[in-house]
Design a protein that fits this description.
Number of helices: 11
Structural class: alpha/beta
Strand order of the largest sheet: 7-6-5-8-9
Bound molecules: N-carbamoyl-L-aspartate
Order of helices and strands: HEHEHEHEHEHEEHEHHEHH
Shape: globular
Helix content: 25-40%
Radius of gyration: 19 Å
C-alpha cells in the first residue's frame, strides 16, 4: 500500500483505501507483537526522532516502542514550550535535525500547522503527533482500529464524540477518519466548546447529552483541555460532569453493547466516571493504548518504505 504523501500530517484528505490499508498492516503488527515475534530488521540503521514541544505519555512512549520494535535508533527530544520562540526555533531545529540525518521525525506542537511547516524544511518523513487543535492522525487510526476490532466493522456505526470538541485535535482527526470509513459521527458538547466549523464537516451536533447518546454504538469521551481555554470558556468540573460527564446512567442511553473510549489522559470525575472507565465489559481504553503501538509501527513502516532516500 501507499500513502499519498511523504509525510503523515493529517487524516483530512486521506482516502478510505489508504486508511483501511494502514489498519490492516497495523493489525498484522498487533498479532506479531502478541506472539512475541520481532521485526527488528525493517528500520535497522534508521533514525527516528521524537520531538515533543508539548507533554505526552502514551503518544511519545508508543512511538518510541514502535520504532524500537522495528529496529530503528530512537531519540527523544523534549522541548519546553514556554522557552521557545516558535517560528525561529522550529526552523533552527529543522536545520539541526537535517544535519543529523534523521529519517523519521515525530512532532507534537502546541501550534496548529507546526509539523506541516517543519515538513517543508526537513528531509525526514514527518509524522504529526498532535498539533494544537488541528489534528492527531495516529490517534484517529488507533481509535478506528480499536472500533473495528471491537465491533467487526466501522461502516454504518454511530459514534458519539463528547465533551470539549473545540480544543480537541483528537475529535477533528476522528471526524475525518470515521466519516471516510462511512460511520455516522455525532458531536456532543456545550455550545461554548463546540466550534462552528465542525457541523459542515458532516457531523450531527448535540448540546443535550441524552439526545446525542441515544442508540450510539461507540461513546468517545474527550478531556476537558483547560490549558487551551481562556476566561469564560472554563466550566466548573462539577457542573461539567453533571451535564457532559459519562456515568453508568448516561451510558444506559447508548446501544446496549456500546463501547466506551477515551484517548487519555483522563480526568476522572470531570468527563468520565471511574465506574465506566474501568468497566471491562464496556471500556476499551486499555485496548486503545495497545492499538497505538501497532498503528504507529504501521505508519513508520509505510513512511520509511516510501521515503526515496530509504528505498
Ligand atoms: C490527546 C492529545 O494530546 O491530543 N492525548 C493523546 O494523545 N492520547 C488528548 C488530550 O490531550 O486530551
Amino acid at each position: 500500500m501507499m500513502l499519498p504523501a511523504r509525510h503523515l500530517l493529517a487524516i483530512e484528505g486521506l482516502h478510505q483505501t489508504a486508511i483501511a490499508g494502514l489498519l490492516d498492516l497495523a493489525e498484522s503488527y498487533l498479532l506479531l507483537n502478541r506472539s512475541g515475534k520481532t521485526q527488528r530488521d525493517l528500520l535497522k540503521g534508521r533514525t527516528l526522532i521524537n520531538l515533543f514541544f508539548e507533554d505526552s505519555t502514551r503518544t511519545r512512549t508508543s512511538f518510541e516502542l514502535a520504532g524500537k520494535r522495528l529496529g530503528a535508533d530512537v531519540i527523544n527530544m523534549s522541548v519546553s514550550t514556554s522557552s521557545v520562540n516558535k517560528g525561529e526555533t522550529l526552523l533552527d531545529t529543522a536545520a539541526t535535525l537535517n544535519a543529523m540525518n534523521c529519517d523519521l521525525l515525530v512532532v507534537r506542537h502546541g501550534q496548529s500547522g507546526a509539523p506541516a511547516l517543519l515538513a517543508q524544511k526537513v528531509d525526514a518523513a514527518v509524522i504529526n503527533a498532535g498539533d494544537g487543535t488541528h489534528e492527531h492522525p495516529t490517534q484517529a487510526l488507533l481509535d478506528a482500529l480499536t472500533i473495528r476490532r471491537a465491533k467487526g466493522r466501522i461502516e454504518g456505526l454511530t459514534v458519539a464524540i463528547c465533551g470539549d470538541v473545540a480544543h480537541s485535535r483528537v475529535a477533528r482527526s476522528n471526524l475525518h477518519c470515521l466519516t471516510a470509513l462511512n460511520a455516522r459521527v455525532r458531536l456532543i458538547g456545550p455550545p461554548t466548546l463546540m466550534p462552528a466549523e465542525v457541523a459542515r464537516l458532516g457531523a450531527e451536533v448535540f448540546h443535550d447529552m441524552a439526545e446525542g447518546l441515544k442508540g450510539a454504538d461507540v461513546v468517545m469521551m474527550l478531556r476537558l483541555q483547560r490549558e487551551r481555554m481562556s476566561g469564560g470558556q472554563v466550566p466548573s468540573a462539577r457542573e461539567f460532569f453533571r451535564f457532559y460527564g459519562l456515568d453508568a446512567q448516561k451510558l444506559g442511553l447508548a446501544a446496549p453493547d456500546a463501547i466506551v473510549m477515551h484517548p487519555g489522559p483522563m480526568n476522572r470525575g470531570v468527563e468520565i466516571d471511574s465506574a465506566v472507565a474501568d468497566d471491562p465489559a464496556r471500556s476499551v481504553i486499555a485496548e486503545q493504548v495497545e492499538m497505538g503501538v501497532a498503528v504507529r509501527m504501521a505508519v513508520l513502516d509505510i513512511l520509511a518504505r516510501q521515503q526515496p532516500r530509504l528505498a
